[in-house]
Amino acid sequence: MEEQVVLVSENDEILGLMEKMQAHENGILHRAFSVFLFNDKGEMLLQKRASGKYHSPDQWTNAVCSHPRFDETYLQGAQRRMKEELGVEAELTEKFHFLYKADVGQNLWEHELDHVFTGFYDGGFHLNEEEVSEVRYISMEKLDEEMKENPQQFTEWFKIILKEYKEHL
């Protein structure tokens, strides 16, 4: 079965379901979540998207970002994807939500009502190699430096979400 996303209004009213690729081709607003995980040193976990991903392959991004299913809350979706992508469980706290639209290349768009969660994790990982090729922790200072020097190495949505996250600190 093709993966579907939940289409919503700007006020998070459900408008229907659409196949994920179709929503990304047409830039239709849909539900999403983003997870920022930190270790005990305050460093942020980054994941490198697998080379087989249909957009933004081999780019660094935040710990997890995806879409809740129709029958899931944003939090349930975030916890499910942490297990599926990273093989981890962590307690998450919702920090804020916002709307954004980003051109991710190949005539694809991310137009999302994004709920952003944070959590702490210091254990090992069991990466799903179809989703994630590697992970690493990085200080915020070093991340800012890398993003400035090599912005093409990071996903477009991560740049937007990170800026928004810093404004909510």
Q: What's the short version?
A:
With 169 residues, the chain is an alpha+beta fold. The chain contains four helices and nine strands.
Tell me about this structure.
The protein contains four helices and nine strands, in the order E-E-H-E-E-E-E-H-E-E-E-H-H. The longest helix is centred in the middle third of the chain and has 13 residues, at 74-86. It is an alpha+beta fold and 169 residues long. A hairpin with a 2-residue loop joins strand 7 and strand 8. Helix content is 25%, strand content 39%. The protein has a four-stranded mixed β-sheet, with helices on both faces. The protein has a three-stranded antiparallel β-sheet with strand order 5-4-9. It has a single domain, classed as Nucleoside Triphosphate Pyrophosphohydrolase (Alpha-Beta Complex), CATH 3.90.79.10.
Could you tell me the CATH topology label: Nucleoside Triphosphate Pyrophosphohydrolase
Total number of strands:
9
Instruction: Note the beta-strand portion.
Output: 35-45%
What is the residue-averaged pLDDT?
A: 96
Strand order of the largest sheet: 6-3-8-7
Number of helices: 4
Q: What is the CATH top level name? A: Alpha Beta
Radius of gyration: 15 Å
- Can you tell me the CATH architecture? Alpha-Beta Complex
- CATH superfamily label: Nucleoside Triphosphate Pyrophosphohydrolase
Overall SS class: alpha+beta
Main sheet attributes: strand count, strand direction, barrel closure? 4 strands, mixed
Overall structural domain count: 1
